[in-house]
Amino acid sequence: MLSRTLLKRILASPARFNSTPKTVVPFRFYSFTQAEQPRIRIGSTAPNFQVETTKGAIDFHEYVNGNWVILFSHPADYTPVCTTELGAFSRLKPEFDKRGVKLIGLSTEGVESHQGWIKDIEEVETNGDAFQFPIIADGKREVAYKYDMVTEDDFKNLQAGKPVATVRTVFIIDPAKKIRLIMTYPASTGRNTEEVIRVIDALQLADGKGIATPVDWTVGKEVIIPPTVSDEDAKAKFGDFRKVKPYLRYAKVD
Question: What is the pTM of this model?
Answer without folding.
Answer: 0.83
